[in-house]
Design brief:
Number of domains: 2
CATH superfamily of the largest domain: P-loop containing nucleotide triphosphate hydrolases
Structural class: alpha/beta
Strand content: 25-35%
CATH topology of the largest domain: Rossmann fold
Low-confidence stretches: none
Largest sheet: 6 strands, mixed
Distance between the termini: 60 Å
Helix content: 25-40%
Strand order of the largest sheet: 6-9-10-3-11-12
Mean pLDDT: 88
Number of helices: 17
CATH class of the largest domain: Alpha Beta
CATH architecture of the largest domain: 3-Layer(aba) Sandwich
Radius of gyration: 24 Å
Shape: globular
Amino acid sequence: MEKQPVLEARGIDKQFPGVHALKSANLDLYEGEVHFVLGENGAGKSTLISLIAGVHRPTAGAIEFGGRPIELSSVHQARQLGISAVFQEFSLVPQLTVEENLFLGAEATAGGMLDKRRMRARAREILERLGFPITAGERVAYLSRAEQQMVEIAKAFRGELSVLILDEPTASLTERETERLFGLIEKAKAAGVGVIYITHRLNEIRRIGDRITVLRDGRRVATLRVAEASETRLVELMTGRVIEQIFPRIQFRPGERLLEAKGVTTASRNVRNVSIRVHAGEIVGIAGLIGSGKSELARACFGVERVAAGEVRFAGEAVTGASPRAMLDRGFFYLPPDRKLEGLVMMRGARENIALPSLAHRHFSRGWLLDRHGERQRTAELARRLQLTPPDLERAVDQFSGGNQQKVLLAKALSREVRLFVFDEPTVGVDVATRVAIYEFIRDLCEAGAAILLISSELPEILNLSNRVYVMYRGSLRAELAGADLTEDKVLGHFFEREAA
């Protein structure tokens, strides 16, 4: 007897105002398999899983669960069936604690009152079972993005599972936390759970994948087994064209020392006595686990984090304690890792976002008045350069795909004269084609003489784009690597606690 899928989506259409997101798309999922769904930003991946998770209803087509047709009207209904999703966009309430978020909408009660003791005990048990180092009673607003990701994952493992949907679950996790998640997925597979997994990280597929479905322009273009899928083939299916190589070759010509941090310690103590330097014409990487202090170091140099000790110099000038505005005016631009929280004003248009850092500069103003014509002209030029799609500069940024939101963030950095760019997790949540374009963009800036500081949790980015790398561990500098020493083994060797001799 032929094995039946635990879940099947057939002929799915979904239309939003002005957008035909899915066009007769199909997906089937079997018990105990990890089924990857791949595609460029805007291909329809997130729309498809939102239908399966009960967020939206399809315009046409059918979803079957356990061989029977179902019509999902809510996420709660889907979870009652055992279909649980971890979305790329967090659904946490920052003002509530971890345990309150875990049981939001499914609170334990006793005598008509919330049973907080029971929920805390259950939350602690879930977090301990999953191996997540977070406290049940801590307020979510005070957690790092990686820790918030753990809370989202814990929510999915709260009840009995039949189908687990993961949308870019490792985007904010380190190698160690990713390994822990993969271990949980293997356990779920062994228990018969079917897993739908969306990622832009192709190296994850061979680690845990069984089958792959590729979407392009809202349609399924192929479903194949992992053993049949080369990276080149997958990229060709996703983009409709051949991409020769992911990482570009870069000509480094180190020149003037632009940024120097000497013995920097932050007030938060997330960075302790760290010294680095970055020259014009080079790309310097900072690697380390979440919590290593790599982002905090760059933010301290930019003026976002307070420096308690040490010195920051830019172009030979002491700038310790200078404000971000002062650093911007000197030609230092920091691109944050969370474009939605810190990088962009999501409800405003692309034009306004691109122009925001440069309103007092030529092209954008005439004295005390904004130059609307110059602003439109300059932002349109930057949008064309970065191939913003669609090229509608008045469209609210939250209506663009993740990859195009990242392009708006990059365009902001080009709206004024910049000598040093700090890219903090520049390819989070973007597709392969956009990733390649970002890498080429970084190469072009470097070869044009800019200094680049690259902070990334993706080791291949660090290894393939940098000419020097600093490795941090728990707020301290572990190593500076270059040349023949710049290898995966040597970088990873500094990521973890050293054993006593």
